[in-house]
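User: Protein folding is very new to me. Would you mind checking the protein record under this note? It all follows right here:
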Amino acid sequence: KMAPKTVHVEVFFDYSSPWTYLAFSQLEELKKRHADLDIKYTFKPILVGGIFNKVNPSVYEARKSKPVIPKLQYSNKDLSEWAEAYGIKILGPYEFDKSKRPNPFPVNSIKSLRGAAFAEEKGKFIEYSNLVFHSYWGESKDISKDEVMREIIEKLGLDFEQFQHFISSQQAKDFIRNNVDECISRGGFGSPTMFVNGDYMYFGNDRLPLMERRILIEAGKDVGNAGIGWVSNL
């Protein structure tokens, strides 16, 4: 029996995005669902604000302008329904009732993003990321605060002083900046941005079915079994 072809999936992400939390929560599941394949993830933390500043300022303009109420209501319903479907808790940034939003929103995620590289080095990246996402989106804890990050780091049995030292290093700063530049140069404009085998880009949680289909195609599976609907005869 031939060894399965390795399929590489790069994930550019920021903890400050609820749609990224949704997508992230499904990546390990996707791998389990296709245990016969060799799916390799590379996680690349990005400060999404850096991307908005350079290539997608419309995000800021939208925040300043008067919200489109039906769209806001729908986004809120959409986010809650995805979270329910995935079994995670997300306090929606689209809630009219501010007490139901994570506070602060948006949050400065830079410490947690630099810390992702620290957790990766210690072999705790997935657990760390789940805790960061849940602390902010599920429990409204401010991940820009040292005491919140300390709680996460200590829960993982890691050393907070070491963590502090790492995230203030030039290496950690450059790592995020280089990921931002790379994401932009490859056509990215937000989080999550995922690439399958370097060439196929997918943006957002709702593109996961297409990404999964592409992984199957790249692994050499029969495309007929890799559809996400029925092929139309039109």
User: Anything to note?
Assistant: The first helix runs from residue 18 to 33. The beta strands are 6-13, 38-45, 193-196, 200-203. DSSP finds ten helices and four strands in the chain.
